[in-house]
Design brief:
This protein has 360 residues and is an all-beta fold. The chain has a single domain (6-346), classed as Methylamine Dehydrogenase, Chain H, CATH 2.130.10. Helix content is 0%, strand content 51%. It is built from no helices and 29 strands. It has strands spanning 6-12, 23-29, 36-44, 51-53, 59-64, 70-76, 82-89, 95-100, 106-111, 116-121, 133-136, 152-156, 164-168, 173-180, 185-188, 193-194, 201-206, 212-217, 222-228, 234-241, 250-256, 262-268, 272-277, 284-290, 296-302, 305-310, 315-321, 328-336, 340-346. Strands 12, 13, 14, 15 and 16 form a five-stranded antiparallel β-sheet that branches. It has a four-stranded antiparallel β-sheet with strand order 3-2-1-29, with no helix packed on it. The protein is globular. The two termini are 28 Å apart.
Length: 360
């Protein structure tokens, strides 16, 4: 490649994880229109189902969602190519999410298969070292098929030194951890946040004001509202359905728009993006638009555009968001990508933090 500009990196499932992608794909983004032009696979790596970036360095991280879980790190170069920096085992099974601490010194990984959280130190170039901790959750939930054991689904680093939140679908819990940065170990802060039985918490989104957050329940099709207290605990405020459409559905991604006025939820099964207003105590559904397929697994907002990855339809939907109503409208033909599972926008300003609304 010899292209300059803004890019979008796309994670996927590969053959070993039930998909038919090859690795991480890059697409060039036209800043004015938001149109995407796929440029090809830039990293062949097993099941890079979730991607994250370093807050200050041009380094991209991918989980390798396989039984012997791993993470891979890549340097992003000006033309969009990726240069491998190394990979590390997580010590857990089927990692599905990862995030970098605000100070850029540690990488946290959620291992879905065995309900654990991995800590990896990062050097000054953003390269991960050997893991310094692996914490496994114990217990199960009420659903014998999906909650037979712990299943960590997301890790959310604390802001300004606050606790790390680990969302666990299998035990209906959010665990809170302090990071002892010296040895790189996690210390649990009790009590953990107990979610109603059978919710199956998946992903969490925080409001820019730091005082509110919302959680999607994969198993009961819900959006749960919380107040973030002064000690970084979560106080439950109420529950609303994640979709107004009939039929079985599973919420996947949730994010707050950059202006803080609207909440977006992807609903698999019914194939929609639901838009909620955040004016009151609980989110209010104001619109629900077709995502372009039935299984929108992930999305990301960058500028006025919303990019939606539909895992089963093999496409990325390109939407433009109305700033007044918050409602996305399809503006370009869908982009074909095999088994896409994650969308990570990237600008050529490598040192700047990502401008998309995704919380991880």
């Amino acid at each position: 490649m010899a292209v300059q500009g803004a890019f979008v990196y796309l994670g996927c499932y590969t053959a070993g994880a039930g998909g038919h992608g090859e690795g991480i794909v890059v697409a060039q983004r036209e800043p004015d229109s938001g149109a995407l032009t796929p440029l090809g696979t830039v990293a062949v790596t097993p099941a890079p189902s979730f991607l994250a970036r370093h807050p200050d360095l041009p380094v991209l991280y991918a989980v390798n969602e396989v039984a012997d879980g791993g993470v891979s790190a890549f340097r992003v170069v000006a033309n969009g190519d990726l240069t491998a920096l190394g990979s590390r085992p997580t010590g857990g099974a089927d990692p599905c999410h990862l995030a970098v601490a605000d100070d850029g010194r540690h990488l946290f990984v959620a291992n879905y298969g065995d309900g654990s959280v991995t800590v990896l130190p990062l050097d000054r170039q953003g390269v991960p070292g050997e893991r310094t901790d692996l914490v496994r959750h114990e217990g199960h939930g009420v659903d014998p098929q999906r909650q037979e054991r712990a299943h960590t689904h997301m890790v959310v680093p604390g802001r300004n030194g606050g606790p790390l939140l680990a969302v666990d679908l299998g035990t209906d819990s959010i665990y809170r951890y302090e990071l002892d940065a010296g040895p790189g170990r996690l210390v649990e802060r009790a009590p953990r946040v107990h979610i109603a039985a059978g919710v199956g918490p998946r992903h969490l989104a925080r409001h820019p004001d730091g005082r509110r957050c919302w959680l999607v329940g994969e198993l009961d099709g819900s959006v749960l509202a919380y107040e973030v207290t002064s000690d970084a605990s979560l106080r439950f405020r109420g529950r609303v359905p994640a979709s107004g459409r009939p039929g079985p559905m599973q919420p996947s991604e949730v994010a707050v728009g950059p202006e803080g006025h609207f909440l977006y939820v992807a609903n698999r099964g019914v194939g929609t993006i639901a838009v909620f207003a955040l004016d009151g105590e609980l989110p209010v559904l104001v619109a629900e638009v077709d995502s372009g397929g039935e299984w929108p697994r992930h999305f990301a907002r960058v500028g006025a555009n919303l990019y939606v990855a539909d895992e089963r339809a093999d496409l990325i939907g390109v939407f433009r968001v109305n700033p007044a109503t918050g409602v996305p409208s399809l503006v370009h033909e869908a982009v074909g990508v095999r088994s896409p599972t994650c969308v990570l926008p990237w600008t050529e300003e490598h040192g700047a933090r990502s401008s998309h609304a995704h919380v991880a």
